[in-house]
Design brief:
Chain A: One of its GO terms (cellular component) is mitochondrion. Chain A: Belongs to the class-I pyridoxal-phosphate-dependent aminotransferase family. The structure holds 2 protein chains of 2 kinds. Chain A is an alpha/beta fold. Helix content of chain A is about 45%, strand content about 10%. Chain A has 18 helices and 13 strands. The longest helix of chain A is centred in the last third of the chain and has 32 residues, at about 355-385. By secondary structure, chain B is α/β, with parallel strands linked by helices. Chain B has helices at about 1-10, 40-45, 70-80, 95-105, 110-115, 125-140, 155-165, 185-190, 215-225, 245-250, 250-260, 290-310, 315-325, 325-355, 365-370, 380-390, 410-420, and strands at about 55, 120-125, 145-150, 170, 175, 180, 200, 230-235, 265-270, 280-285, 375, 390-395, 400. In chain B, helix 8 (about 185-190) packs parallel to helix 9 (about 215-225). Classes of the chains: A alpha/beta, B alpha/beta. At the A-B interface, helix 1, helix 2, helix 4, helix 7 and helix 8 of A face helix 3, helix 6, helix 7, strand 6 and helix 8 of B.
């Protein structure tokens, strides 16, 4: 007879009971235990099955997978034009001088501790981030109608905003541009929104399909959420003009469509922070409401520190306050409170006018280098007589160029020329240098002439 | 008519703002959320002007002067890192080095399971992030499962599994009369739960009660969980902090591993490395074999990508710098022991003071319980009196963060507790 474990009748085990139980356990042989195990639990056992046996391997992330493949390639001429991370002329990652300075200041400040931040993050960081994107003189800020919460870069800001919308907004559909950053659909779907698309990119002109955009937004149900890239559209680099933005704004307001801006490249597009925020500011000046996800990954080079902010512009201060309290309920069960390091660096820089100026200069230098790469690539293709119109390379804005190459051509370029890029033909201009432009131009030329 | 025209004239002035909803908000119906019960305590404490105020609310370590501590090993690691780290994106699964070192802490320095690559592990946003990632993973791959959560537990556990949309049940844990473990009822709940349920276990230093099963009790818990084919998920937020010895604090986990369970673990460096605001942690899931571990890890990454893409680098590099340098690691172990010992000392002092005051109640549980928290047994009304009359701040469930007790305030605290309980 198999000895039973006696549960102690009193609620706290007396030591006698404990000793007895320990004895009993030693007496119960493995075979006796496994008999019980087999009888009750088909999913456990000694060399047991896992409850997660059925989990299959997920496909590589299409964007991050590019770098994985690049890293495996032994070729000395390989070029990584995948991930949108800035590289210097020497092909190296860049930590801005002003960031290093801020880091040192933080390190030397012995009074700094690593305590938990409040759920919404660093107050100063939030305030300065709102000022950066909306303008220090923004009426929305003056009237306390903005709530800003620190989040994990752009991704985290989008996710927190989307979760809030899924819980509190009456419309659960978000319209995203076709195409958009590969991670957008999943962010919104996992947050509980359903995703539809609106026409954006026109492959024939390699520019904006403005008519299609207006039509699709025009036929969206009233109140729908609309994702807008504030500037430097990813992956196409195609941005509306200011006039087009104004038309978009009017249409959206007339249909009560809710704007959700993704601002990942402020300062990186034109080289000017205010200019790159124009689209967003239009939507705030008109007194309406919007969501803004801000990232410091690229424009401050803080990629891995995951620094960002979600702002919600409301029509009244008390509303903004209530919204903030609900945002906290989204954040607490996700990560409790945001990471301190990167946001501290940002706050240090933004609040010091000298450091802020230094930053704008370094930012402009990065943006200018990218603009120069565009020119060089365009010239190189023209010099080679590569068939086709390549003017989109200099017309498109920001870190990426949507080359218009198809996936077969991309595959060819990877195979023959060791050029790594996403299969949609997007190249990160930030990964180019004067030295490597000729190689890329050769590759494009070959792909276009030999593969159609 | 004239009035309407005048009004519409004003509105027409704002033709530039076609269609703007400047009169009403979409969010008018949003209710103000209740304050977080734990973090709200610190807010209230900060607002209090009294010179006698004591904060024994949130579980963040304080030294004997009541000051937050940055460990020396952390300062040294930061000195080494500063100026040298580029801030490139980590992979979605985080810092490989940090994760490797972290697994050793939980599974054992020379764990065969690590050598066999059977553990799917990713860097996570501290303990919260690790639990949430697991909850999302559980929802996606075992959609019909439910999670059993101890009563009581860290309040945020409920929020995490709720937001992951995993149905939750509770199991008996704390026994108020003895201020110890309700072991019989806990075992009953394990036996009565449907086969293949998921059980959330605190690996050591249970939060908020400080009541941990004994080693023998853990063995029985393991046996019964196994018999029912349940999944054991460990939240280990206090490794090293409970006894002062990280190996000892991992005992429960090691018992389950010996018994062949395929467990999951959420690990946090918030307390034991004092990295709170850096949000450094790790989620691991033990699998049948390497192939499955690769699959599970890839799926965990799929859940992280639409949440935050990849985890923050700074805190992770601090951890891997410390743990991969034998001298720094030794220093860390020393500093953890100092923190744990101070807390154990304060437990003794608080109990001693209460007994000296002639309290009619038993305060044995103060020294029986382990880790950062003491479940005092105070009622919400008594807690309110402590706050209102004595400026002592704690959560209303009577949980005292022993880390906030110092030689400077322990007498005052004992006095106040005696006053409201005599």
């Amino acid at each position: 007879m198999r000895p039973e474990f006696t549960s102690p009748s009193s609620s706290s085990s007396s030591s006698a009971d404990r000793r007895l139980n320990a004895l009993v356990r030693h007496l119960a042989t493995p075979s006796m235990v496994s008999q019980t195990a087999v009888a009750f639990s088909p999913t456990s056992g000694f060399h047991g099955d896992s409850v997660f046996s059925h989990v299959v391997r997920a496909p590589e992330d299409p964007i991050l997978g590019v770098t994985v493949a690049y890293n495996k390639d032994p070729s000395p001429v390989k070029l990584n034009l995948g991930v949108g991370a800035y590289r210097t002329e020497e092909g190296k990652p860049l930590v801005l001088n002003v960031v290093r300075k801020a880091e040192q200041m933080l390190l030397n400040d012995k009074s700094r501790v690593k305590e938990y931040l409040p759920i919404v993050g660093i107050a100063e960081f939030n305030k300065l981030s709102a000022q950066l994107i909306f303008g220090a003189d923004s009426p929305a800020i003056r009237e306390n109608r903005v709530t800003t919460v620190q989040c994990l870069s752009g991704t985290g800001s989008l996710r927190v905003g989307a979760e809030f919308l899924a819980r509190h907004y009456h419309q659960k559909t978000i319209y995203i541009p076709q195409p958009t950053w590969g991670n957008h659909p999943k962010v919104f779907t996992l947050a509980g929104l359903s995703v539809k698309t609106y026409r954006y990119y026109d492959p024939t002109t390699r520019g904006l399909n403005f008519q299609g955009l207006l039509e699709d937004l025009g036929s969206a149900p009233s109140g729908s959420i609309v994702l807008l890239h504030a500037c430097a559209h990813n992956p196409t680099g195609v941005d509306p003009t200011l006039q087009q933005w104004e038309q978009i704004r009017q249409l959206m307001r007339s249909k009560a469509l809710l704007p959700f801006f993704d601002s990942a490249y402020q300062g990186f597009a034109s080289g000017n922070l205010d200019e790159d925020a124009q689209s967003i500011r239009m939507f705030v000046t008109d007194g309406g409401e919007c969501f803004v996800a801000q990232s410091y990954a690229k424009n401050m080079g803080l990629y891995g520190e995951r620094v960002g902010a979600l702002s919600v512009v409301c029509t009244a201060a008390d509303v903004a306050s209530k919204v903030e309290s609900q945002l906290k309920l989204v954040i607490r069960p996700m990560f409790s409170n945001p990471p301190i390091h990167g946001a501290s660096i940002v706050a240090t820089i933004l609040k010091d006018s000298n450091m802020f100026n230094e930053w704008t200069i370094e930012l402009k230098a990065m943006a200018d280098r990218i603009i120069s790469m565009r020119k060089q690539l365009f010239d190189a293709l023209r010099a080679r007589g590569t068939p086709g119109d390549w003017s989109h390379i200099i017309k498109q804005i920001g870190m990426f160029t949507f080359t218009g190459l198809n996936s077969k051509q991309v595959e060819f370029m990877t195979r023959e020329y060791h050029i790594y890029m996403t299969s949609d033909g997007r190249i990160s201009m930030a990964g180019l240098s004067s030295k490597t432009v000729p190689h890329l131009a050769d590759a494009i030329h070959a792909a276009v002439t030999r593969m159609t | 008519m004239a009035i309407r025209r005048a009004m519409s004239g004003r509105i027409m002035d704002r033709t530039a703002v076609v269609g703007a909803r400047y009169m009403s908000s979409w969010w008018r119906s949003v209710q103000p959320a209740p304050k977080d019960p734990i973090l709200g305590v610190t807010e209230a404490f900060l607002a209090d002007q009294s010179p006698d105020k004591v904060n024994v609310g949130v579980g963040a370590y304080r030294d004997d002067n009541g000051k937050p501590v940055v460990l020396e090993c952390v300062r040294e690691a930061e000195r080494r890192i500063a100026g040298n780290l580029n801030m490139e994106y980590l992979p979605m699964g985080g810092s490989v080095k940090m994760v490797e070192e972290t697994l050793k802490l939980a599974y054992g320095e020379n764990s065969e399971l690590i050598k066999e690559k059977r553990i799917a592990a990713v860097q996570a946003l501290s303990g919260t992030g690790a639990c949430r990632l697991f909850a999302d993973f559980q929802k996606r791959f075992c959609p019909d499962s439910q999670i059993y959560i101890p009563v009581p537990t860290w309040a945020n556990h409920h929020n995490i599994w709720r937001d992951a949309q995993v149905p939750q049940k509770t199991y008996h844990y704390y026994h108020p009369e003895s201020k110890g473990l309700d072991f019989a009822a806990m075992i009953d709940d394990i036996k009565n739960a449907p086969n293949g349920s998921f059980f959330l276990l605190h690996a050591c230093a249970h939060n908020p009660t400080g009541v941990d099963p004994s080693e023998e009790q853990w063995r029985e818990i393991s046996h019964h969980i196994k018999a029912k084919g349940h999944f054991a998920f460990f939240d280990m937020a206090y490794q090293g902090f409970a006894s002062g010895d990280p190996e000892k604090d991992a005992k429960a986990i090691r018992i389950f591993l010996e018994d062949g369970h395929h467990i999951g673990i959420a690990q946090s460096y918030a307390k034991n490395m004092g990295l709170y605001g850096q949000r450094v942690g790790c989620l691991s899931v033990l699998c049948e074999d390497e192939k499955q571990a690769v699959a599970v890890k890839s799926q965990l990454q799929q859940l992280a990508r639409p949440m935050y893409s990849n985890p923050p680098v700074h805190g992770a590099v601090i951890v891997s710098t410390i743990l991969s340098d034998p001298d720094l690691k030794k220093q860390w172990l020393k500093e953890v022991k100092v923190m744990a010992d101070r807390i154990i000392g304060m437990r003794t002092a608080l109990r001693g003071n209460l007994e000296k005051l002639g309290s009619p109640l038993s305060w044995q549980h103060i020294t029986n319980q382990i880790g950062m928290f003491c479940y005092s047994g105070l009622t919400p009304e008594q807690v309110d009196r402590l706050t209102n009359e004595f400026h002592i701040y704690m959560t209303r469930n009577g949980r005292i963060s022993m880390a906030g007790v110092t030689t400077g305030n322990v007498k005052y605290l004992a006095n106040a507790i005696h006053e409201v309980t005599k």
